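Obj.: predict assembly geometry.
Materials: sequence records (below).
Method: joint structure prediction, all chains together.
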Amino acid sequence: MLQYSESLDLAFHALSDPSRRGMVERLTRGPASVTELAEPFAMSLSAVVQHLRILEASGLVRTEKLGRVRVCQIEPKALQNAEKWINDRRMLWERRLDRLGKFLAEESNEKDQGSTS
Amino acid sequence: MLQYSESLDLAFHALSDPSRRGMVERLTRGPASVTELAEPFAMSLSAVVQHLRILEASGLVRTEKLGRVRVCQIEPKALQNAEKWINDRRMLWERRLDRLGKFLAEESNEKDQGSTS
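Observations (raw C-alpha cells):
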C-alpha cells in the first residue's frame, strides 16, 4: 500500500505528460485494449506500454489480462485523491481571501464611522 | 503565454514533489518570504530556491521583490486549471458509469417483464 504523499507524487507525475493525460482521457470514456489505447498516438507500442506502466504504478489506471488481450481501465480513487488535494488547498486559499476581504471591509467601516462621529 | 497543455505539464510536474506541495500548502495560508517558506524544510536555501523556480515556471506561485525581501504568493489560476482538468475527466467517467447503470437496470427490467408475460 502506497503512502498518501507518495501516491500523490506518482499521480501528479503521471499526469504531467500530455500523452498520459490523453490515455486517461480516453479511458474515462470506457475500458480499452492496449492496441486501442495506442491508436491515436504517433508512438511505438513499446512507448505506449512504458507510459501505461507509469499510469499503473500511480494507481490511475488498472490493467487486466482477459484471454489474450490486456484491458486497461481507469481507477477513479487516485484521480479523486489528486483532485481533492488541489481542491482542499484552493478552499484554504479562498477562505483566507474571504477573511481578508471581511477584515478590510470592517476596517473601512470603522474609519467611516470614526470620521462622521 | 504558455499553451494550455504545456501549462498543465508544468503544474502537474510541480505538484509531483512533496516539498513543492508543502510550499504551495504554506502559501495557501498567506504570502511568505523565501526564508519563511524555507523554514519548515530540512534543505538548503538554494534547494528551496530551485523548487521555487519550478513553482514559478508552472504559474502556481508568483514571487515579487519588495525592497530587500522576495515575497512569494499563490497564483490560484494554475491551481484551478489543474483541478478542472481532473474534475472534467472524473465527471466524464461518472456519467459513463451512470449510463451503464441505467442501461443494465433497463435490461434487467425488460428481462423481468419478459419472464412474467
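Conclusions so far: The mean pLDDT of chain B is 91.
To do: check interface contacts against the pulldown list.
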